[in-house]
Design brief:
The structure holds two protein chains of two kinds. By secondary structure, chain A is of the alpha+beta class. Among the domains of chain A are: 77-113, no CATH class; 129-204, SH3 type barrels (Roll), CATH 2.30.30; 215-301, Alpha-Beta Plaits (2-Layer Sandwich), CATH 3.30.70. Chain A has helices spanning 9-22, 28-38, 44-52, 77-87, 129-144, 228-235, 262-270, 282-298, 300-305; strands at 114-116, 146-152, 160-164, 166-172, 177-182, 189-191, 195-204, 215-223, 240-247, 250-258, 276-280. Chain A is extended. Chain B contains twelve helices and 15 strands. The chains are: A alpha+beta, B alpha+beta.
Amino acid sequence: MVFNEIYGCYYNAVAKMISLAIDGELTEENMYDIARKYCFEESALTIIPAIKNEEWKVINRELETPILNKPVLPVTEIEKRWLKTILMDKRIKLFKLDNDRLTDVEPLYLPEDVVYFDKYADGDPYDNEEYIKIFRTILQAIKLKKKVDIEYAPAKGDMIKARMIPIRIEYSDKEDKFRVVTAFNNMRKFNIARITRCELTDEDATGISRYENKQKKLVFELTDDKNALERAMRKFARYKKEAEKVDEDKYIINLYYDADDETAVLIEVMSFGPVIRVLEPVSIKREMQKRISKQKRLFAHLFNDI
Amino acid sequence: MAYQELIKNFENIRGYMNEFFIYGFKTREEYQDKSSRSYDNERRRIKSYLGDLVTFTQNAKGRGVFISLDASATTRNPLYKAFKSKSFTAKDITLHFIMLDILSDRRKHTLKEIIERIDSVYLDAFEEPVFFDESTLRKKLNEYATLGIVEITKEGRCVSYQISEDNIRLADYNDAVRYFAEINPLGVVGSYIRDRLDDENVNSMDIFSFKNNYLMNAYDSEILEKVFEGIHEKKIIEFTNINMSKTETEWKAIPLKLYISADGGRNYLMAKDIEYGQMRAFRIDYIRKIKVCDYAINYNKAIEDFDKIKEHIWGVSCQNKTFEHIQIDIHVAEHEDYIVSRLNREKRCGKVTRLNDTTYRFEADVCDCIEMLPWIRTFFGRIEDIKCDNKRVIEILLDDLMKMGI
């Protein structure tokens, strides 16, 4: 049962309040703090009166509890099964874990039960020992806040050798690839599969300014033909966006994307065909027009056949 | 009934969250099939769960509510929070903590012992104690046995209860949990484990971020749980499917695979329906009221049938028994090897061959070539020729180009 109160934030918050009450440290003030930190915006309005009025008989009006031991919820069946499921995933090798654990636990499903039907076929080599080693070194460096020395073989151009600060590891579901996001000049992301050497250094990763991608805005008009609105809103759901209905079947969508992803965005927009008309930026608009004109010329023989 | 922050059933809020996430521009008046009160309550709940992620737009028609976030800047799916909102009674929460406390000694206890402990130790602390009868307690213990928290042992006529053996060191799984909680179809379970790790003060750095992540599919976790149960246990499932025009249909089917679109944000159940014996794809977000039923005796035959066609499915369309041949010639200029790489990594079936220095051919036999149209359009500007058994494919592409004219 994935939706159950035992996983709920109210139970979690009350468990923390009981723990404080056992230590004799529960106050009304820290009850509010816990509710704010672990629950929803309005939760304190329910939790605190329920405790003070002794509706929930676990803490009394004096903020004392008859509970003797700090609450610990055992790992549940579905949690064990979920862990078993991820242990069977090909990417689990990236993490230092013993695969023989949970031997008598059934997974929720088998890897072959799920098919990512439009995922790229050239995903990262999760069986490659060197790749695994590099991934783990980067992971360790991020945790220890240390710099790494890397050698990188880009798709185009010369090998890069540099000392850099790894900030985060980014995974792309569609590409099935990991990239390390670094504070290194303007070249901030490196495909982990293209890193040929990675060494942890003793140098502290200090002085990192907050990493932010340069964002650009795409504006397009969408005609809701053949369910295009629903298709587009779902496909573009991963982007921050705003939508406005401007006519019976017309919508204006503002979508914000990472400037590095302009070609990918262009391709995504092209896939919708005539239901999307790009208004901004000019760069995408022009490139689309160029490709359409070229395609019309290439299809001249097919147009003639009609 | 007064507004309650917690909910008994996730189905209502699932619909609203989907609307707010996908169609942020809709105003209150445009939710015609819902009552104003229901709209106001769900909007308030979602705002309470998600805080600042819920924003408002103002237009001539009124105010729209939308959930706005950039998935690539998100290290934890904030929508999982909504799953931590299940309602409960005063008796539920009271029994939960008392029972766990009694059973924390890891010894076996009979129902009678537990009741005596509750009455003598726990409820004296309160001015108006509450009493639990055997039936209520037994029911709760059985529920916790189903959840895997409590183990029930029967020795003769004596039934005893103890806390489940739990020797899993969650801290060992910390990095893996933080990654898989975000990309696994049932990642909400991982988020429950991550909550525990946060409590244990295990390194909670946000190391991973996710590009192209479709966060909103988290809404469908309850449905997916049942779908996986059906697939894993080879059982028939019954469900209500509601389509775009809100028409409801009842289905009984053998669930075979979960098909996930990493590029379109849609998830599908691939199944063989019992009534017509046909392979079908059902949108997961259109499924309501799902139930896992009996073992499907012919499960293996259904999987065999599916395996025969799976290499010919481009998207999810799988009903055609004959395949349509398609052949596309793509122009690849010098130094444009990346186009060949694109063809090879994006083709889901068929093959790519080099015809000459500047032309590569993709060809395949697929169940439904119409499904390929979005992909084919992405090569506009370099398609030298196209041939397809389904003439409609070429008609649509030519029509697209006319409409997309400058």
